[in-house]
C-alpha cells in the first residue's frame, strides 16, 4: 500500500500536499535497512510494469502477423504508424525517417504508459513525477542526437553548425555563440526532462489538492462544509480527465522534440 | 497570515507564459480560420510552441518548491 493510501485509511490527511507526497514507502518493510531499500515501491513497480506491458503487448499482437490485420495487430500498427508518419517521416523524410521511427515510437509509447500510471486508480502516481526517470530519457535523447551529428559531420563541423548561426553579423558572434552553445548542447536535455517531470509533478499535486481537500472538508465536522466536499471530488474527477490530455500531449511533445533535435543534427544548415 | 512568498512568486512567473500560450493559440486559430487546409501542417508547430512556452511556467512551479 502506498503512503498516501495508508494516510487516508488512518483518517489523517496532511492537507496542503507538498514534496513529501511523492515519497513512497517500501512495499516490504523488512528491506528498508538493507541495500535493497527503495527497490520495491509503487514508483519502481510503475517502471517495470510499463516495460512489461509494452513488451508483452507487442509480442502478443505480432505473434502471427496477417495481411488483413486482426484487432490487436491493428492497434499495434496504428500506434507505431502514428509516430512513424506524423513525427518521423514528416520531420526527416521517408528514408531517414523510417530509420528512426522504431526508437521514436518506443519512446512515445514508453512515456505514454509511464505517464498513464498517474490516473490508474490504486496507483495514481506517475514514475515520471520523479526527476530521475525523465532525466534519463532526456540524456538518452542527448546522446543520440550528439552521436548522430558527430557521425554525420565530424566533431568540429557539427559544433560549428550547432553553435554558429549563419547570417548574423560578425560583431554579434561573441554574444550569440555562447547562448547557442548553452541552449543547444547543455540545456536541451534539461528542458526536455524538466518539461515532462514538471507536468507530471504538477498533475499529481492538482489531483492531491482536490481529493485530499475533499477529505479535509469531510473531516471538518460542520454539515454545510461537509456538503461542499462533493464539489471538490467532482473537480478531482474532472481534473483526472484533464490529466489524460496532458499525459498524451507530453508524450507526443517529448517525441516530437527528440525528432526535431535528431533532424537538426542530420541537416546541413542550421 | 501564513504561507510562503514562493506562491506569490509563482503567480507572477505564470503571467508571461499565460500570455504567450494565449498568443500561440490565437495565432493558430486565426491561421486555421483563414486557411482551414493548413491546420495539419501547422499543428506540430502549435504543439511545439505551446510546449516551449508552457515549460517556462513549469520552471516557476518547480523552483517554487525547490527554493522553499
TrEMBL record, chain A:
One Gene Ontology molecular-function label: proton-transporting ATP synthase activity, rotational mechanism
TM regions (residue ranges): 39-62, 100-119, 131-150, 196-218, 230-253
Subcellular location field: Cell membrane; Membrane
SUPFAM superfamilies for the chain: F1F0 ATP synthase subunit A
Matches recorded under InterPro entries: ATP_synth_F0_asu, ATP_synth_F0_asu_AS, ATP_synth_F0_asu_bact/mt, F0_ATP_A_sf
Superkingdom of origin: Bacteria
One GO cellular component term: plasma membrane
Primary subcellular site in the record, as a coarse category: membrane
Task of the protein: Key component of the proton channel; it plays a direct role in the translocation of protons across the membrane.
Record family assignment: Belongs to the ATPase A chain family.
Protein name: ATP synthase subunit a
Gene name, Swiss-Prot/TrEMBL: atpB
TrEMBL record, chain B:
Bilayer disposition of the protein: Multi-pass membrane protein
Keywords tagged on the record: ATP synthesis, Cell membrane, CF(0), Hydrogen ion transport, Ion transport, Lipid-binding, Membrane, Transmembrane, Transmembrane helix, Transport
Spans traversing the lipid bilayer: 12-33, 45-67
GO-annotated cellular components: plasma membrane; proton-transporting ATP synthase complex; proton-transporting two-sector ATPase complex, proton-transporting domain
Site (described: Reversibly protonated during proton transport): 54
Gene3D superfamilies per record: F1F0 ATP synthase subunit C
A Pfam cross-reference name: ATP-synt_C
Annotated ranges, domain V-ATPase proteolipid subunit C-like: 10-66
Keyword Ribosomal protein (UniProt): no
SUPFAM superfamilies noted in UniProt: F1F0 ATP synthase subunit C
Molecular function via GO: lipid binding; proton-transporting ATP synthase activity, rotational mechanism
InterPro entries (UniProt xref): ATP_synth_F0_csu, ATP_synth_F0_csu_DDCD_BS, ATP_synth_F0_csu_sf, ATPase_proteolipid_c-like_dom, F/V-ATP_Csub_sf
Localisation: Cell membrane; Membrane
Record family assignment: Belongs to the ATPase C chain family.
Function: Key component of the F(0) channel; it plays a direct role in translocation across the membrane. A homomeric c-ring of between 10-14 subunits forms the central stalk rotor element with the F(1) delta and epsilon subunits.
HAMAP family in alphabetical order: ATP_synth_c_bact
Protein name per UniProt: ATP synthase subunit c
Amino acid at each position: 500500500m502506498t503512503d498516501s493510501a495508508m494516510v487516508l485509511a488512518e483518517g489523517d490527511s496532511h492537507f496542503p500536499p507538498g514534496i513529501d507526497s511523492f515519497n513512497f514507502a517500501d512495499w516490504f518493510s523488512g528491506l528498508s535497512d538493507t541495500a535493497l531499500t527503495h527497490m520495491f515501491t509503487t514508483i519502481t513497480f510503475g517502471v517495470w510494469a510499463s516495460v512489461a506491458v509494452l513488451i508483452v503487448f507487442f509480442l502478443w499482437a505480432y505473434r502471427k502477423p496477417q495481411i488483413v490485420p486482426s484487432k490487436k495487430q491493428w492497434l499495434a500498427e496504428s500506434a507505431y504508424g502514428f509516430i512513424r508518419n506524423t513525427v518521423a517521416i514528416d520531420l526527416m523524410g521517408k528514408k531517414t525517417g523510417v530509420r528512426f521511427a522504431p526508437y521514436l515510437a518506443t519512446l512515445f509509447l514508453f512515456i505514454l504508459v509511464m505517464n498513464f500510471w498517474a490516473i490508474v486508480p490504486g496507483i495514481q502516481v506517475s514514475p515520471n513525477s520523479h526527476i530521475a526517470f525523465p532525466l534519463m530519457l532526456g540524456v538518452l535523447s542527448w546522446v543520440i542526437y550528439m552521436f548522430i551529428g558527430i557521425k554525420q559531420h565530424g566533431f568540429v563541423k557539427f559544433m560549428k553548425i550547432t553553435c554558429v548561426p549563419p547570417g548574423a553579423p560578425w560583431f554579434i558572434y561573441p554574444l550569440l555563440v555562447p547562448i547557442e552553445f548553452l541552449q543547444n548542447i547543455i540545456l536541451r536535455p534539461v528542458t526536455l526532462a524538466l518539461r515532462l517531470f514538471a507536468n507530471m509533478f504538477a498533475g499529481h499535486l492538482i489531483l492531491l489538492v482536490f481529493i485530499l481537500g475533499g477529505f479535509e472538508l469531510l473531516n471538518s465536522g460542520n454539515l454545510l462544509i461537509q456538503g461542499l466536499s462533493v464539489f471538490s471530488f467532482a473537480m478531482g474527477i474532472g481534473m483526472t480527465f484533464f490529466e489524460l490530455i496532458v499525459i498524451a500531449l507530453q508524450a507526443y511533445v517529448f517525441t516530437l522534440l527528440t525528432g526535431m533535435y535528431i533532424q537538426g543534427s542530420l541537416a546541413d544548415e542550421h | 497570515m501564513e504561507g510562503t512568498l514562493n506562491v506569490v512568486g509563482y503567480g507572477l512567473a505564470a503571467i508571461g507564459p499565460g500570455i504567450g500560450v494565449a498568443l500561440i493559440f490565437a495565432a493558430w486559430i486565426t491561421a486555421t480560420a483563414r486557411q482551414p487546409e493548413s491546420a495539419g501542417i501547422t499543428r506540430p508547430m502549435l504543439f511545439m510552441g505551446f510546449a516551449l512556452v508552457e515549460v517556462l511556467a513549469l520552471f516557476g512551479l518547480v523552483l517554487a518548491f525547490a527554493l522553499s
